[in-house]
């Protein structure tokens, strides 16, 4: 079943290192998918505009690394963003 990157589903992700690796890996994939949708896909962009940034529960170090990865994608022009600057569509809640 595909992950629907809604605000509720993104808030329910648990990105902490103290859980089974396969659970963390699955939620990291979901978070990445949601972040891409919030930055690139029309439905995601509209949801961010209407409801604000996604709230993601996660370890600060894990989220920093994810943000670094996304910044690298933007610098390499691998993400087609509507504007020229990368603006995170999420906030970290710990």
Main attributes?
94 residues, mainly alpha, PpnN_C, Putative decarboxylase, 3-stranded parallel β-sheet
Structural overview:
By secondary structure, the chain is mostly helical. It has one domain (7-93). It contains four helices and three strands; from the N terminus they run H-E-H-H-E-H-E. It has helices spanning 7-11, 21-40, 42-51, 60-75, and strands at residues 14-15, 54-58, 90-93. The chain has a three-stranded parallel β-sheet. Helix 2 (21-40) crosses helix 3. The relative contact order is 0.20. The model has no long low-confidence stretch (mean pLDDT 88).
Short description:
With 94 residues, this protein is mainly alpha-helical. It has helices spanning 7-11, 21-40, 42-51, 60-75; strands at residues 14-15, 54-58, 90-93. The chain has one domain.
* Arrangement of strands in the largest sheet: 1-2-3
The counted number of beta strands is 3
Mean residue pLDDT: 88
The radius of gyration is: 13 Å
Poorly predicted runs of 5 or more residues:
none
- Please outline the major beta sheet: 3 strands, parallel
Order of helices and strands: HEHHEHE
Counting DSSP H or I runs of 4 or more residues, the number of helices is 4
Indicate the overall shape.
Answer: globular
Number of domains: 1
Helix residue percentage: 40-55%
Structural class: mainly alpha
Tell me what portion of residues adopts beta-strand conformation.
Answer: 5-15%
């Amino acid at each position: 079943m595909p992950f629907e990157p809604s605000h509720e589903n993104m808030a329910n992700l648990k990105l902490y290192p103290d859980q089974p690796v396969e659970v963390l890996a699955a939620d990291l994939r979901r978070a990445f998918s949601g972040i891409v949708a919030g930055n690139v896909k029309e439905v995601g962009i509209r949801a961010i505009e209407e409801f604000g940034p996604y709230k993601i529960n996660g370890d600060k170090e894990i989220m920093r690394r994810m943000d670094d990865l996304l910044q690298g994608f933007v610098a390499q022009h691998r993400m087609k963003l509507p504007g020229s600057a990368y603006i995170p569509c999420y906030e970290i809640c710990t």
